[in-house]
Amino acid sequence: MKLAYWMYAGPAHIGTLRVASSFRNVHAIMHAPLGDDYFNVMRSMLERERDFTPVTASVVDRHVLARGSQEKVVDNMARKDKQEHPDLIVLTPTCTSSILQEDLQNFVDRASTISDSDVILADVNHYRVNELQAADRTLEQVVRYYIEKARRQGNLNLSLTDKPSVNIIGIFTLGFHNQHDCRELKRLLQDLGIETNQVIPEGGFVDQLHQLPKAWFNLVPYRETGLMTAMYLEEEFGMSYVSTTPMGIVDTANCIRQIQERLNAWAPVLLNKKINYESYIDEQTRFVSQAAWFSRSIDCQNLTGKKAVVFGDATHAASITKILACEMGIRVSCAGTYCKHDGEWFKEQVQNFCDEILITDDHTEVGDMIARAEPSAIFGTQMERHIGKRLDIPCGVISSPVHIQNFTLGYRPFLGYEGTNQIADLVYNSFTLGMEDHLLEIFGGHDTKEVITKSLSTDMDLTWNSDSQSELSKIPGFVRGRVKRNTEKFARQNGIAEITIEIMYAAKEASKA
Amino acid sequence: MSIKISETLTFECETGNYHTFCPISCVAWLYQKIEDSFFLVVGTKTCGYFLQNALGVMIFAEPRYAMAELEEGDISAQLNDYQELKRLCVRIKKDRNPSVIIWIGTCTTEIIKMDLEGMAPELEAEIQVPIVVARANGLDYAFTQGEDTVLAAMAHRCPECKVRAGEEQEIQSESPQKFSFTPLGEATEKIKSTTKSRNTKPLVLFGSLPATVASQLGSELKSQSISVSGWLPAQRYTDSPTLGDGVYVCGVNPFLSRTATTLMRRRKCKLIGAPFPIGPDGTRAWIERICSVLGIETQGLKEREQKIWENLKNYLDLIRGKSVFFMGDNLLEISLARFLIRCGMIVYEIGIPYMDKRYQAAELAFLQTTCEEMCVPMPRIVEKPDNYNQIQRMRELQPDLAITGMAHANPLEARGINTKWSVEFTFAQIHGFINAKDVLELVTRPLRRNNNLENLGWTDLVREGN
C-alpha cells in the first residue's frame, strides 16, 4: 500500500478510453462499477466536447459479484451496437474487473457473433501499466486488428502514394495541446511538400486503418503514445518512422532532417530527385520563427544563468530542458519525469543539460526537490504550479496532468516553428522580467507582504526575534524565502536556536564566502 | 404532454446505466465538515484518479484525506493488510494527529474481501486512535449515499444516552476506556438542561451541512421553542451527539436511509419522518412535522414561508410554466422536484439512483399533494435510469431545463437544451428558508444566461447528422 493523494499518470483504463474515444465512431464499454465513468466528465469538461463521449459502463454491482456478469456485458455490447452502430466496440477492463478475473475475451467472442460492429478486448493490465502505457498499447492493438483484418480480406494496399506522405501517430483526446500541435505539424509538413496520409487516433476512422501502409513514413511526435504502433508498422511493412519530437528550434530542425533522410530512401526512385530541406530550415529558424532571434536579444540575456527546474512527461520535460539549456542559456538545476517506464531514455536525453535528474512519480519528492533547488522558475505540470504557488516561485505549465485552463481556445502549439514562439513567450513570462528584477533589488521591493512562513519542510525548531522578523520583512518578497531558509540553515548548522539580526548578517556573510 | 393529471406517482426502474459520482466523493465534504477527522480511502489508482480530478483544487490544500493505494502485492495477498494499514495509520497519526481515522472501503476491498471491520478494532487498540469503517463503494451505492454509509458507521460510535421520561437527561458512560470500539465514551455529564424551551425530548438531526446552514436550521427550530441537542455529524468527532432510547432523530437530506435505519434499529432512536427542509415549502413542512411529533404548536410559520416566497418573486417569474427534466444522480431529486413544482415548473421526469419509499415517504406524499395543488401532471419517477434512453426522451420532450451530470451537460447544451449541473446542488447551500434563494439562483442561471444571449441565433452548435 502506498499513501498518496496525487498521481501524475492515471489508471490504465483512462489510456484505453482516450484512444478509443479519439477515433470516430468507436464505442468503449467499461466493465466497471458505478461511478467509474468519470472519464466522460473529464472529456466533456476539459475538452469542452460537444458530442456525447462514446463510453458507457457495463455496471459491476453486487449481483455481478455474486453470480458473474453472465449475459450483462454481452447484452450491453449488443445494445450499443443497435443504438449507435459503431464500427468498433472496445471492451475496457478496469481495476475492478482485473480482480474479478472474468473471462472477458469470451464475452467479446460471443458479442462479435451477434453484432455488426467489430469487438475487441483492450489488452491492458491495471496493475502493470499506467494511463500512457495503456494508450500506447491500445492504439497498437487497434491498428494491428485492422491491418490483420484487411490482410485476411485481401484488401491491404501496400503501394505508396505518388507524392511523399506521412502518418501522424499519437494525437489524441485530453493530450496536452495535442489539437494545436497536430495543426502545426500538418502545416509544417505541407510546407515540406508532404501530404498527411492519416492522423491517428484523433478523428480517424478504424475502417481506414488498412490504408496506413500507403504513407512513406510515420511521424511519432510524442514518446508516450504511438511508438508501439510505429514499431509494429516497421516490423510488418518496413515503414520507417521519425520519433524526434519537433519541439524547440534545434529539435525541429533535427526532426526535419530525419524526415528528409526517410524521404530520400524513396524520392530518387519515385520523384526522380533528392529532397533537401536545409534552406527551409535556415529561413524558418532565422526569420520566420522569432525564437532564434529572441535568444540573441538582450531580453534573453537577462535570463542567462538563472535557475530553473523542469518536471513533466518524458517528451515535454526532455524537450523543454534542452530548449532552456541550449537555446536560452538557462541553468536547469533539475530535470525530471514521472514516466518511470521510460527513465533510461530520459536520462540519456537530458544528462548533459542539467545538474540533476529526478525520476519519480511521488509529488512530495518533486516538491522537496524544488524547495531545495530554489529555482527562479519552474516548468512542470499543474502539481508543480501549486508547489510554486506555495513557495512563491513562478511556474509555466509544460505537460499533463493539466487543468481546464490548459485546454486553450486560442492557438497554442508546442511543436514546430510556431511552437518555438509559444515556448519562448511562456519561458520569458515565467521569470520575473529583467528590468523589474533590477529595480526591485535597487529599491528594496514594492510589496509589503508579511513574512512568509510557507515552506515544505516541517521542522520549525527555530524562533525569530522581533527585530530579525522586521528585518526579514524588509527584504523583497521574491528573495525573502531564500534568505529565510539560508539563515535558518546557517543557524541550524551552528546550533543556534534564536535568530537575531546579527545571525542574519552572519548567515549572509557565510553564504557569500 | 397531456394535461390529464395522473392519480398517483408512477415508479419505473430502468437498466442502471447512468452517470453519477462514485460514493467515495463524500470525503470531499465530510473531511471539511468533521474538522478533527482523517479519511483514508483504501482503494486503487482509479479511486485516486477520480478524487484528484473531481475535487480539483482541494487536492492542493493539504487535505485531511489520502489514498491507501493498493498495489499488486496487496491484491494477491503477498503483503499483509493489517501491517500495511498499520504503517499508513501510524504515519497519519504522527503527521496529523486526528481524533478519528475513517477508512473508506471501496470496490476493490469488497472484491478481495479485505476485512476492514475486523481489523479496525484491533488496530484502534494498538495505535490509540478511533477507526470508523464505512464501505462507500460503487458496487452498492451512488454518490451522496457515500455520506450515508459514513454517518451510519459513525452512529454506532456515538455515546449512549438514557432518558428518563420527563426528567433531565443523563449520559451514561458505557466504557471508561477512551479508545474502544464501543461507543465514543465521555465522562458522565449532564446535557445543558433546556429550561427555556418547552421540549424536554432530546432531538438529534442527522446529515452533514455546512456550519452556517446547520445553525440556521437550529435557529428556525429554536424560534419554535425546540432546541437541537446534537448533530450527526458534529463539527468535531469528539462532539458526536449522544444517542439512545427516547432520543428523537430527524434527517435533513433524502439520501440518509441507512443512517436512519441504524439510528432506529441499533440505537433505538425515534425517527421523525418528514419532508426535507429544501425550499420554503419543504422547510415549513419539516418544522411542522417535528413540532407535531414533539407536541408543540407552531407559531408564525405560515407567515414566515409566505415572506420567503415574496422575496423569490423575481426568480419565480423566470421559471413559471417552464419544464424540467432530472436525469438523476444525487438523490436530492424528489425534494428539488417538489420545490420546483411549487415554484410553478412542470417536471417531466425525476430520475433517481435509488428510491427508499419508506424513508422518503413523507417527501413523496408531499410531492403528490404539491402536484395536485398546482394542477400539474405527476412526474414519472425513474429509478436506476438509463441515460441513453433519457436522452432519447429528452429529444422528444425538449424540456426547458435538464438537471444533469457534467458528462452530459456540454453535449446537451450544444444541442440547444439548457442544463444545470446537478452536483452543484450537493455542494451549494440549499437547506432552510434562507437558502431557498440559492436553489433558484442555480436553477435560473442557465435561463438568465439565455436571456442575455437570446438573439444571437447560435443555440444549436452541432453539425447535422451528429
Number of extended strands of chain B: 16
Q: In CATH, what is the class of the largest domain in chain B?
A: Alpha Beta
Main β-sheet of chain B, in a few words? 6 strands, parallel
Instruction: Give the number of helices of chain B.
Output: 18
CATH topology of the largest domain in chain B: Rossmann fold
Q: Into how many domains do the coordinates of chain B divide?
A: 3
> What Rg of chain B is obtained from the alpha carbons, in whole angstroms?
23 Å
* CATH architecture group name of the largest domain in chain A: 3-Layer(aba) Sandwich
The CATH architecture classification of the largest domain in chain B is 3-Layer(aba) Sandwich
What structural class results from the helix and strand content of chain A?
alpha/beta
Instruction: Look at the structure and name the CATH superfamily of the largest domain in chain A.
Output: Nitrogenase molybdenum iron protein domain
Number of strands of chain A: 16
What does the secondary structure layout of this molecule look like, with pairings?
The complex is a heterodimer of chains A (513) and B (466).
Chain A lengths: L1 E3 L7 H11 L3 E7 L5 H9 L8 E5 L2 H6 L4 H13 L3 E6 L1 H6 L3 H11 L3 E4 L9 H23 L11 E7 L6 H14 L3 E7 L15 E3 L7 H11 L2 E3 L6 H15 L3 H4 L7 H11 L2 H6 L1 H4 L5 E6 L1 H14 L3 E7 L5 H8 L3 E6 L3 H11 L3 E4 L1 H10 L3 E3 L18 H15 L3 H10 L19 E2 L1 H9 L2 H17 L4 E2 L1 H12 L1
Parallel strand pairs in A: 2-3, 2-4, 4-5, 6-7, 6-8, 8-9, 10-11, 10-13, 11-12, 13-14, 15-16
Chain B lengths: L9 E4 L12 H8 L3 E7 L1 H10 L10 E5 L2 H4 L5 H16 L3 E6 L1 H5 L4 H12 L3 E5 L9 H11 L5 E3 L5 E3 L31 E4 L4 H12 L7 E3 L15 E4 L5 H9 L4 E2 L7 H16 L6 H11 L1 H7 L3 E4 L6 H10 L3 E7 L8 H14 L5 E4 L3 H11 L3 E4 L1 H9 L4 E3 L1 H5 L8 H18 L13
Parallel strand pairs in B: 1-14, 2-3, 2-4, 4-5, 8-9, 8-10, 10-11, 12-13, 12-15, 13-14, 15-16
Antiparallel strand pairs in B: 6-7
Helix pairs in contact in B: 7-9, 10-11, 10-13, 12-18, 13-14
